[in-house]
TrEMBL record:
<comment type="function">
    <text>Catalyzes the deamination of 5-methylthioadenosine and S-adenosyl-L-homocysteine into 5-methylthioinosine and S-inosyl-L-homocysteine, respectively. Is also able to deaminate adenosine.</text>
</comment>
<feature type="binding site">
    <location>
        <position position="221"/>
    </location>
    <ligand>
        <name>Zn(2+)</name>
    </ligand>
</feature>
<dbReference type="InterPro" id="IPR050287">
    <property type="entry name" value="MTA/SAH_deaminase"/>
</dbReference>
<protein>
    <recommendedName>
        <fullName>5-methylthioadenosine/S-adenosylhomocysteine deaminase</fullName>
        <ecNumber>3.5.4.28</ecNumber>
        <ecNumber>3.5.4.31</ecNumber>
    </recommendedName>
</protein>
<feature type="binding site">
    <location>
        <position position="73"/>
    </location>
    <ligand>
        <name>Zn(2+)</name>
    </ligand>
</feature>
<keyword id="KW-0862">Zinc</keyword>
<dbReference type="InterPro" id="IPR023512">
    <property type="entry name" value="Deaminase_MtaD/DadD"/>
</dbReference>
<dbReference type="Pfam" id="PF01979">
    <property type="entry name" value="Amidohydro_1"/>
</dbReference>
<feature type="binding site">
    <location>
        <position position="309"/>
    </location>
    <ligand>
        <name>substrate</name>
    </ligand>
</feature>
<dbReference type="InterPro" id="IPR032466">
    <property type="entry name" value="Metal_Hydrolase"/>
</dbReference>
<keyword id="KW-0378">Hydrolase</keyword>
<dbReference type="InterPro" id="IPR006680">
    <property type="entry name" value="Amidohydro-rel"/>
</dbReference>
<keyword id="KW-0479">Metal-binding</keyword>
<feature type="binding site">
    <location>
        <position position="309"/>
    </location>
    <ligand>
        <name>Zn(2+)</name>
    </ligand>
</feature>
<feature type="binding site">
    <location>
        <position position="71"/>
    </location>
    <ligand>
        <name>Zn(2+)</name>
    </ligand>
</feature>
<comment type="similarity">
    <text>Belongs to the metallo-dependent hydrolases superfamily. MTA/SAH deaminase family.</text>
</comment>
<feature type="binding site">
    <location>
        <position position="224"/>
    </location>
    <ligand>
        <name>substrate</name>
    </ligand>
</feature>
Length: 444
């Protein structure tokens, strides 16, 4: 007779999409969780030895690794819809930077982050990479919501809401890193130089030194628009990727967002430093920035994850939409329907996303020993039937509203669409207050 093992949480009966090295999909599967970890994954027949305080019956549902948003600016949810249908430079310099100068405070950042966490939990995101201002507040609110995040304090060469100079920004970033760097269960602090066109080489070097000193990730917007390529060529005589290499900002645990304006010989530079790429197709389409060479970067061995970018350039934080868009965008630009199949974009939102953010040893797949970050998704809506192929159903026919249950670090954040860690009504009220404030600020 087999001994019984008591665990905290047992999910049984669902189709478990492991995203492990063999990409195993277990039709009648189970997942056992104890503390913050997955302790076993297998077929329902093997689940018999486990007893749990909480059992979730997932028959007819898909159980997947939590989705990973590799690039966003969470407080920008409060700027959603404020300035649409503009090119990057005009959008940033005429609308977003001025709106931020008037409105970004600790209080605003906390409110925007709460709204973002609510949206992300509801749409199946369990981990995100952020870069913004007042990141200690973002970290605090994220931890309370129960989500996992890499939280990057922005460094930029002009006065911003939390730092008048990049030196002040760097000192602030160091304090923030010191507060969170020793093994926090959910928050990984990071340094986030905004971009090569807003940070001088000295600023970029100081950011790299700080990241190396504390062994934390470095997050940067890179090669996003042709205006960036022109500016960097004019200023430094090199294109953006060779420029950042020459300056010395590429290095351990770098995460570069966008990476659109590339030439094939530049992939080797990114590969040399193991740079993870955050592909943000919806933001890139909306700002008409261009189309990143994702199939080529993947073929060159780069880890490419998926990001939404901020809600002011997307305009949501929905990775199900982002998967659908990524799969279709690359087909249409190449006139090749075989490029970026559903399985590939599902990888980008899970295990490849984890590789891109340098966390694949801990998250991105459902395997014993990994952190228990997973979602349970209904796949029985008429719109998803008859469901011949699960990756296809998830990428092309599933909506974020089909996400029913979300677990991060072994803790339930949403069960059967009921949010357990945030006060949804209070967030709606708070958002309405900020809407009025932001509108008024723009009339002054
Ligand atoms: C480093 S984040 C802070 C800074 O970046 C701005 N921002 C938001 N989205 C983008 C983007 O796609 N490219 C460049 N800059 C962006 C944001 O408004 C903050 O000021
Ligand atoms: Zn961005």
């Amino acid at each position: 007779m087999r001994a019984t093992t008591t665990v905290d949480l047992l999910v049984r009966g669902g189709t478990v999409v492991t995203m492990d090295a063999q990409r195993r999909v277990i039709p009648d599967g189970f997942l056992a969780v104890h503390g913050d970890r997955i302790v076993a994954v297998g077929t329902a027949a093997e689940a018999g030895q486990y007893r749990a305080k909480t059992v979730i019956e997932a028959g007819g549902k898909a159980v997947l690794p939590g989705l990973i948003n590799a690039h966003t600016h969470v407080p920008m949810t409060l700027f959603r819809g404020l300035a649409d249908d503009l090119a990057l430079q005009e959008w940033l310099t005429k609308f977003i930077f001025p709106a931020e100068a008037k409105n970004v405070t600790r209080e605003m950042v906390r409110a925007g982050t709460r709204l973002a966490c609510l949206e992300m939990i509801r749409s199946g995101t369990t981990c995100f990479v952020d870069m913004y201002y007042f990141e200690d507040d973002i970290a605090d609110v994220t931890e309370a919501a129960g989500l996992r995040a890499i939280v990057g304090q922005t460094i930029i060469d002009f006065p911003v809401p939390d730092a008048l100079t990049p030196q002040i920004g760097l000192a602030q970033a160091e304090r923030f890193i010191q507060k969170y760097k020793t093994g926090h269960p959910l928050i990984t602090p990071a340094v986030a130089p905004h971009a090569p066109y807003t940070c001088a080489p000295e600023t970029l070097i100081a950011c790299r030194k700080l990241a190396d000193k504390h062994g934390v990730p470095l997050v940067i917007h890179l090669a996003e628009a042709d205006t960036e390529t022109q500016t960097i060529l004019e200023r430094y005589g090199r294109r953006p990727i060779p420029h950042v290499e020459r300056v010395g900002v590429l290095g351990a645990r770098t995460i570069a967002a966008h990476v659109i304006q590339t030439q094939p010989d530049e992939y080797a530079i990114l590969k040399k430093y193991n740079v993870g790429v955050a592909h943000c197709p919806q933001s890139n389409m909306k700002l008409a920035a261009g189309v990143a060479a994702v199939p080529e970067m993947r073929a060159a061995g780069l880890a490419v994850g998926l990001g939404t970018d901020g809600a002011a350039s997307n305009n949501d934080l929905d990775l199900f939409e982002e998967m659908d868009t990524a799969a279709k965008l690359h087909k249409v630009v190449r006139r090749d329907p075989t490029t970026m199949p559903a399985e590939a974009v599902l990888e980008m939102a899970t295990i490849e996303g984890a590789r891109a953010i340098h966390m694949a040893d801990r998250i991105g797949s459902l395997e014993a020993g990994k952190l228990a970050d997973f979602i349970i998704v209904d796949v029985s809506n008429p719109r998803q039937l008859p469901n011949y192929q699960l990756a296809s159903t998830l990428v092309y026919a599933t909506k974020s509203s089909d996400v029913e249950t979300v677990v991060v670090n072994g803790k339930l954040l949403m069960r059967d669409r009921r949010i357990l860690t945030l006060d949804e009504a209070a967030i709606r009220r708070e958002t309405a207050t900020f809407r009025t404030r932001i509108l008024e600020s723009l009339q002054k």
